[in-house]
Amino acid sequence: MQKDIFKAIADPTRREIINLIAHQSMNLNAVADNFDMSRPAVSKHIKILTRCGLLIIKQQGRERFCKADLKQLKQVTDWAEQYRRFWTQKLDDLDAFLTAEQNTTDINHKNKKL
Known about the structure:
Order of helices and strands: HHEHHEEH
Helix content: 55-70%
Mean pLDDT: 91
CATH architecture of the largest domain: Orthogonal Bundle
Number of strands: 3
Strand order of the largest sheet: 1-3-2
């Protein structure tokens, strides 16, 4: 069962695991060595990331390696994009309003001098 990707990336430890593994495939022990918590705790985080499809676990001999599969983060990007467009438009509108106000103020100031 796939978990909610937003809940998965809400945890800073899981975001750091993603960051570590995004740069290189790592075995589970190497991942756990980067955190000041028990290996079972790190393993739980990895399990959640795997259920969300952000990590793939591959068995190589006796070792299990984590590999990042960040395609699922597109859901997050798509969600955030709607707000980026919204705020970009609002800020552009504010800029246009302030520019028009400034131009009006400049014209009124010039007319008073004449």
